[in-house]
Amino acid sequence: MWNPLSWVMEVAAIMAIALANGGGRPPDWQDFVGIIALLLLNSTISYIEESNAGSSAKALMANLAPKTKVLRDGRWSEQDASILVPGDIISIKLGDIVPADARLLLEGDPLKIDQSALTGESLPVTKNPGDSVYSGSTCKQGEIEAVVIATGVHTFFGKAAHLVDSTNQVGHFQKGAITKRMTAIEEMAGMDVLCSDKTGTLTLNKLSVDRNLIEVFAVGVAKDEVLLFAAMASRVENQDAIDAAMVGMLADPKEARAGILEMHFLPFNPVDKRTALTYQDVADGTWHRVSKGAPEQILELCNCRDDVKNKAHAIIDKYAERGLRSLAVARQEVPEKSKDSSGGAWEFVGLLPLLDPPRHDSAETIKQALNLGVNVKMITGDQLAIAKETGRRLGMGTNMYPSSALLGQSVHESIVSLPVDELIEKADGFAGVFPEHKYEIVKKLQQMKHICGMTGDGVNDAPALKKADIGIAVADATDAARSASDIVLTEPGLSVIISAVLTSRAIFQRMKNYTLGFMLIALIWK
Predict the structure, then answer these.
(1) CATH says 67-164 is which class?
(2) What homologous superfamily is domain 208-355 in, according to CATH?
(3) Annotated catalytic, 197?
(4) Which of 37, 147, 180, 430 is the most exposed place for a label (fewest CB within 10 A)?
(5) Tens digit of each residue's pLDDT (9 = 90 or more) over 184-214
């Protein structure tokens, strides 16, 4: 038995026979035999449990094996990274962990790669077409195709791992979770705050558009055209929920690329919060660009007049009151006919309402968490009104604030005088947050002596997942989120977390009962 508690018991057993009780009495053989018997019994039970669980843990880990998009037989498909061989063409995008050493192809955007785990560099490194990227590093920005040049032990990471020749212990739950750090189970028993991302965690992340509520701002543009522009600025193969929803609303998904030639696609990233497609019209050869994204970013991009901004904000608030997200669409001419040119003035085309319904079990899960003494806080990048509406539906409260409140810039009179620490502790959640805000919220809660859990699924959740006492990556999380977490869920939603909390608390209750029982027996024995 290799854990501190067993070591203490072994030392106690040795002391029982090594030290006399005084008065000429012999060593305490009864305690020695009792402790050794308990250790043997515990070892036997642990061995049997781990043996029985081995196949289950392997199956769960197989489900979480790193995936990658690879070009085989002229078609893109998602495959296990383990099947890659030198010469394969792979796709690398935001949030992916590079599955093998590869050389970037000549066509594509520069990447921002975090290779700190390999080289010790603290900041992401820019990788241009023709440069090499290493297995195990994480893509922080950009999208490009690459050719595999080394796999397995022949990679930069594999050579280092071969020298170290070490493995990490991995535990398991039988209810759809894998533990990467065993002490996280101990900490989960005392967890009193759970910070949760909204999209994809509390909600389904399966969006749909209400056509009747589409608002058009551009002259001579129909509602269906606004939807078409949004679909054009999408890529289904990126497996993004919004992109899939936009293209899925078309009668035929092929309409999104009908009559045009794609010249360049700008993928979504957490900073710009938009996508863009530069294309050539086959009919007349003119170049155009369409973009969709967060309304604030698109409105700023278009440099709209104040009256247009006020109208847009009023519509966004109307959507938010109904629990709808807003997606803005813009377009521009590209007279220079170059993908790198800034193009003409952007025109604000319209707004689309998106609905992301809560998971069927989220409300019940939050209720159970509150009954267990775990306070659930929503931390989302969505707008404040949407966060409040989602919180109301889930029964987790509507006492939520914008991220500006974390910087002491809140316009709410009721909280102006509150210290940031107290505000974070009392709030039900925060909206419009960036990755650094999530990190700071978790950090502040820890400074106030809370045992803080964090759930998430995206790249923007990774810093907070790493910082939290218990980082929990939900099902279908990005590779970056999984790597930063302590526990990886294999089933959707948060209900598995409740099972984990109950399991960890049951373990500690058994330990408490055992200790009290042993002390009682010892007193009776004496």
Answers:
(1) mainly beta
(2) Calcium-transporting ATPase, cytoplasmic domain N (3.40.1110.10)
(3) yes
(4) 37
(5) 777 888 899 999 988 778 887 778 888 889 9
